[in-house]
């Protein structure tokens, strides 16, 4: 039995893919050969790994039987086209696109529902959920026994980096133009993003919900194994480069013991609880970190059955790439 | 009976006071003599009114019997020191500080509870609520008959201008420093405000609630005449210069008819409803406007008894100064 496995990362040139490769190296994941893949437009460039530049090749031409595990971090279309081809060739899949059906590729956040992994048989497909789902699941999981949870209400203030490098450049460019009193010409965003808030991320459906909002509700219910949990959600775009933030209200059917909540958050894996009176910020705390920061833990204003929290996490790292690597670490014994 | 009244504006050099003077001029409010007042630090400067620069004098030395109405826009301490002195001298008071007790100075938003004004006898004291209360009350008022309202959950993303000119300069300065890769030195804010979100505006109490959050709950219950309405609130500071935004979820005991909600919002005074699929932004819509912009009107994701809204309004203008002037317009017949 080999002590390392051969791996493919699809979407290696994107923000999540590149961070994923970096985390695999940082955590010394036992990789034999690493294959970096991307769509034809991005192939040809290279990504650093263990002091070398690894050439990125076209996913279309890749023979998945050469690897035991593939991370899909290139978006829904690529996952829908190639994930089955991978498993047909005996290669297991960790998918970050949200495109694979839950029946085939269950959504898993190690801190919340790692037990689901025990049921997988290789070559398996497993989904690493959206950054919002991951962040919320990490924090809700240790609280479920302490609440008779009736409803989650949340406003997610998302960083522009979730939309890729172009969005990051555009926020910087717009900001510089405004500070220099030059006329603003929105390109990537359809209006002024600098010093502004956009109340909708992506196109809404007939009912007014965006794909992100529906994905969060669907995934969170699945990860928390609460298929009919009421979740009120609004995702907005904030003029922040990296790090998502969440204003969360949990309604319980009975009074909530804050001391127990704080103790549970203090003990739980994947969480850094900031001290009472203080609060974490995306820029000052979350960015580059492996944990979800939690602060402003409090009841409602005269409502003891309400729990309010403020969460912030690195959307690219903790929200996406690290969760996928954590899944791989839990699954590797089945793949070696 | 005179066709004009003499007026004092206290806090005339602040962002709200200056806007208030501007709105009095724009709306041709029938003013005999306008007295501009401020604390000793700000006295001596001047503020433009009808083509002239009006000198700002010290409030300590002012004889309130010279005016029939005084707007207090200088903060809680000044209102607590001088509002009674004004009414004792026969001068009615419109207070924007939130410091006067509700029994003496009821909170009023013309679009929501103008009927309260009928009970006032001069010299009266009336409160113009916080920008958040004003904005929410304008929008909730026309919906109350269409909902069996159980709870309001909201995250308010506040502009830095609510904290005055220093906060505005600091956001600009911090942003320029970061774009020029110079070391960041927070002064007004205790940490990086540019490209960041601060989850707490002001110091929290023992329970973790800020004054702003408690004020909003208290005032909104009063204006809506719903003393035990459940209101979940988090106020955060966004890197936005002007214009507050609100992500709002309303829970009703029964199914909500969206067509009726939209029709009511369309007809209501003080509201601009943007078309379905679009959304308003603070910078692009609200700033400088006399209405609250409403968008993203939708049910919950598979919850028809939930109503979600996105609101944005000019916090200085619609949220504060204009509301006070609207109150004066409704009350002037009693003062002439």
UniProtKB/TrEMBL annotation, chains A, B:
* An example molecular function term from Gene Ontology annotations: oxidoreductase activity, acting on the aldehyde or oxo group of donors, NAD or NADP as acceptor
Matching entries from InterPro entries are given as: NAD(P)-bd_dom_sf (IPR036291), Semialdehyde_DH_NAD-bd (IPR000534), Semialdhyde_DH_dimer_dom (IPR012280)
Q: What Pfam families does UniProt report for this protein, alphabetically?
A: Semialdhyde_dh (PF01118), Semialdhyde_dhC (PF02774)
For this entry, list what GO says about its biological process.
amino acid biosynthetic process
What this protein is called in its record is Aspartate-semialdehyde dehydrogenase
Q: Which residues form the Semialdehyde dehydrogenase NAD-binding domain?
A: 6-120
Organism, by scientific name, is Pseudomonas laurylsulfativorans
**Similarity comment: family membership:** Belongs to the aspartate-semialdehyde dehydrogenase family.
């Amino acid at each position: 039995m080999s002590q390392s496995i051969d791996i493919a990362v699809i979407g290696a040139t994107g923000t999540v893919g590149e961070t994923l490769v970096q985390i695999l190296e940082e955590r010394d994941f036992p990789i034999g050969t690493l294959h970096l893949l991307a769509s034809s437009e991005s192939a040809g460039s290279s990504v650093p790994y263990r002091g070398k530049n690894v050439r990125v090749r076209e996913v279309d031409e890749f023979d998945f039987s050469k690897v035991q595990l593939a991370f899909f971090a290139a978006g829904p279309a690529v996952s829908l086209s190639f994930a089955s081809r991978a498993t047909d060739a005996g290669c297991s899949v960790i998918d970050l696109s949200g495109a694979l059906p839950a029946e085939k590729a269950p959504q898993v956040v190690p801190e919340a529902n790692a037990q689901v992994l025990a049921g997988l048989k290789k070559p398996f497909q497993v989904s690493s959920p959206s950054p919002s789902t991951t962040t919320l699941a990490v924090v809700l999981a240790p609280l479920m026994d302490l609440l008779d949870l009736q409803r989650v209400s949340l406003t997610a203030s998302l960083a522009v980096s979730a939309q890729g490098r172009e969005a990051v450049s555009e926020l910087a460019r717009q900001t510089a133009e405004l500070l220099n009193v030059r006329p603003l010409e929105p390109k990537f965003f359809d209006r002024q993003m600098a010093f502004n808030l956009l109340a909708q991320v992506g196109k809404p459906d007939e009912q007014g919900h965006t794909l992100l909002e529906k994905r969060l509700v669907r995934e969170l219910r699945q990860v928390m194994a609460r298929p009919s949990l009421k979740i009120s959600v609004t995702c907005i775009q904030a003029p922040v480069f990296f790090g998502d933030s969440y204003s969360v209200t949990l309604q319980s059917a009975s009074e909530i013991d804050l001391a127990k909540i704080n103790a549970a958050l203090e003990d739980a894996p994947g969480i850094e609880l900031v001290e009472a009176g203080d609060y974490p910020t995306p820029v000052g705390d979350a960015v580059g970190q492996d944990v979800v920061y939690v602060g402003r833990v409090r009841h409602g204003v005269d409502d003891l059955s309400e729990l309010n929290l403020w969460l912030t996490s690195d959307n690219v790292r903790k929200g996406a790439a690290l969760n996928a690597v954590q899944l791989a670490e839990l699954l590797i014994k089945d793949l070696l």
